[in-house]
Design brief:
This protein is mostly helical. The protein has three domains: 2-58 and 155-177, no CATH class; 61-151 and 181-254, Zincin-like (2-Layer Sandwich), CATH 3.30.2010.10; 255-345 and 362-433 and 453-468, no CATH class. The chain is built from 18 helices and eleven strands. Strands 1-3-2 form a three-stranded mixed beta sheet, with helices on both faces. The protein has a three-stranded antiparallel beta sheet with strand order 4-5-6.
Amino acid sequence: MMKKWKKWVASIVVSFSMVVVPVGMASAASAVQTLLYGAATMALAKQQLNKMDMAGQKKMLASTQAKTGVLKEEGYSDRLESIQKNIVHTGMIKRDYDVYANPSEELNAFETIGGVISVNKGMMDVLDDDELAFTLCHEMQHGEKKHAINGVLKSIGISTLIDVALGGNADLLDILLGSVAVNYIDNEVVTMDQEKQADALGFNVFKNTSYNVGGAAASMQFIYEKYGDLYTEGFKRVISPNNHPQMSSRIQKLAGRMSQWSGNHVQVGGDMVYVNALPVVRPAVSGDYSSRRRAFLVAGNLARVTHNVYGEAPKEDTVVVKPIGAVAPKTIADTNKTAKTVEPAAAEKKVPSPAVTVAAPPVWSITQSDSDISVNGLRIMTCAAGDDSAAIVKNLTAALDAKPMMVSKKEIQKQNKEWTQKYGYKEKDKKDKNKKSAAVKKDTKQDSPKDTQQQKQSEGQQTPAKAA
């Protein structure tokens, strides 16, 4: 196969070289020859990588595990296996994946050639199953779209590929590609568009599982609280280009997808959970779970409740007012406030309006057992210290019975910005630096005064136990 490619590339270049051209175009001819070699070699390398991706899974798994190490504790592998099975059960995953846990304490997970997915111990220790399930859905979409193949190709210089390809040694090319594929996990070359695609497609799979759809935004929220936006602005982008979308933007988009799945009845603005545009709960900080992270998990459970009644909204700014299976008046969406009922247009033609059956309002069963609050049999949240369960039940009752409405996108963005300014990563980092500076000046070992909410958010044991 390698010899055929070499002969094909050479014949194209020779044919081009035999064309009589003016001397002034000689340099252009040389440039075109280089482009031809490069294009053909990239095509060959991509073909070889596709072969490795589809048929070399066992070999890539062994090589990747040798590089990262494998976490031996069965609890981690059992947990990943269970989540993987639940995701595959959707029928939306088209290829097989080998998923394993590695001992790294960093917050990370990756997918590489051969459908190999690895999740760091550090990630598994701090995310609950709902959040971890979205992480796997995201990584599987990198595999479904073969993003690692393009990443490996980008990490190899064109000149290196040309030299190896024209050398006619197929084994050497396989060795080069295999080596780069294994080492690729240290420096993944994933484009911003690929990350956005993995988020979007990953959520489409995620919402079809039994997991809490709020886990998608909650997982990103936790990473944001630890590392910030992971995004550079201005001239820094030239020196170190962004290959991941701004974290706060990813959180907002995933929260928006959750809301749309709820029929646009459930939203999160800052750390406040809204149902039908009415505030329901601002969860208290609980251990390693910030108020906002818990808000996404509470909202995700509520989203399933309203989704079961109304289904998914067709657009991000349309509130569904018609319960599934019911016949209701036609509606139009008021993007800022509510979905309003309108009379049929038949009246304009001076003919009797057709009879319309108005759907009966849904029935909501809100119960509390110890610290758990449930709606229609689904647990919405487990109240922590600082949560006013009586007020939450009262707010839920009023909100679910209220007229279908949604908070405007502009208002949600405003509340998100206000939360970030008050409790966000940069603000926390600035406070920490100021405290360190003050401690040096005073040369004392006194503890800092009363904790702020954001400080509480960053404290506590790292545990994947549910907090919502």
